[in-house]
């Protein structure tokens, strides 16, 4: 087997492992939400931690960010991913907080 086909086989294997890991983490989160409901604070923390684990899996297996190389592109990808994550989490918390205040005002 030549070097090119071996490299393609390794890359395909990394993608399959990354896809399987992401799929497994997603199914675990849905299972936790289905079994425990969304009523306990610990469930929120567990789902958040599994979401961060899924982000790490996707950064390592799909964007190929690892410790073997340190380049400016890796830093840019990490900073951009962090920014997008902060915008999504911040926006979600803001919207849910606003809805909770409005629902509380409506009930009274």
Summary tags:
single chain, 108 residues, mainly alpha, elongated
**Structural class based on helices, strands and sheet pairing:** mainly alpha
Could you list the spans in which at least 5 consecutive residues all have pLDDT below 50?
Answer: none
Q: What is the total tally of β strands? A: 0
Integer average pLDDT: 81
Shape: elongated
Biggest sheet details: none
Q: SSE order in H/E notation?
A: HHH
Note the beta-strand portion: under 5%
Can you give a write-up of this model?
There is one protein chain. The chain is an all-alpha fold and 108 residues long. It is built from three helices and no strands. Helix 1 runs antiparallel to helix 2 (41-61). The longest helix is centred in the C-terminal third of the chain and has 36 residues, at 72-107. The chain is elongated and about 70 Å long. The mean pLDDT is 81.
List the helices and strands and how they pair.
Blueprint: H1 3-36, H2 41-61, H3 72-107
How would you summarize this macromolecular structure in one to three sentences?
With 108 residues, this protein is an all-alpha fold. Helices cover 84% and strands 0% of the residues.
